[in-house]
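Support reply, case 0932

Customer input (verbatim):
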Amino acid sequence: MTVLKSGSLHTVTITGYGSNGEGVARLDDGRVVFVRGAVRDDICQVVITDVRPKSSRAEIKQLIKPSEHRIEPDCSVFQKCGGCDFRHITYEEELRAKLSRINDALRRIGNVSFQLKEIITTGKSDGYRNKAIFHTARCGTQTIIGFYACNSHEVVPITNCLLLCEELNIALKDSWDNPPALGSDIILRKGMKNNSDKHFHVEMDELVFRISKFSFFQVNTDAALLLYQKAREYADLSKSETLLDLYCGVGTLTLFLGRDAGHSIGVESNSGSIDDARNNAKANGLDNVDFICADAADWDVDNIRPDCIVVDPPRSGLSLGVIEKIQKIQPPRIVYISCDPATFARDIRLLDKYEIQKACAIDMFPRTANLECCALLILQVA
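Our regenerated output:
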């Protein structure tokens, strides 16, 4: 095998996409190379920019034969800004790529044969974000406001973003007219009147949630509703059953699913989020809900025997302590919501007493490589 060097040129055919949306190809000797801005079925000459033991990175030097899935980007800063990954491909190709990514993870990492066939969309690929964090930098004598460039802390000036809802683009313009102190981040959230507000409110399916400025809430409200409706369908709770929501945050899923249950319990380690969750239960008139301020692996198992557990963990997935606890109490069903296919597939493999019965993907983040999935896991009786 010849030594691969930075700066060397290679002609490749792009066969798929990496987890960050880069094109994937193999060199003549079989080595994998990731090519930013490449599209499946592109034939291109690439220049190697970074050589690593298991894979390398490259940039397109010449596009020899463009893919039929390639389109002209509709954003002037797409090639530089790190906000979007897929403005150069059709939306249909983007959805295909996302399903392929999660199914590949289930097969390779999860070692399961189950394959998702459905990816749910709102039908809206732009103007969906209800939150954005902008950075500031100095350019000559002017303070500029923007997103970081891809794989960099260089600020790319942004005056209007296609992903943002109209309210946030208006707020962004106001920020340019009245820039903050240099080095300050600007947090814009739909429903927050100014950058120093502490809470904002979201209405969803006859429920109202008050959410702290720094608490987690899905950035795409319409897609979040589709996700929660699917989770509610999968949970299929009755008034004789108990729901346990781990990583409950401000109680969105605890309340959204738990209103069907006899008893609903949310567990969250952040005390501020727990305060919001309790206020949200009270505001929505739900008195069958309790919240516990504790790590997801440290709640008391002796007095709780849930019929269904819902988990929506961070990108790192479930901790081993949580997996061990779930395996110990063996709820009949688990509704698993994930934002990372790799850790989701890993956890499916570790939850070896369960099998996927239903699952779908939700395009929570159009024009980016990120996605959400929702799965129903059923306990297998020996």
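We compared this against your earlier run and they match. Two observations from our side: Residues 336 and 345 are 11 Å apart (CA to CA). The helical segments are 91-108, 166-177, 221-235, 252-258, 271-283, 320-329, 341-350. Please reopen the case if you see a mismatch on your end.
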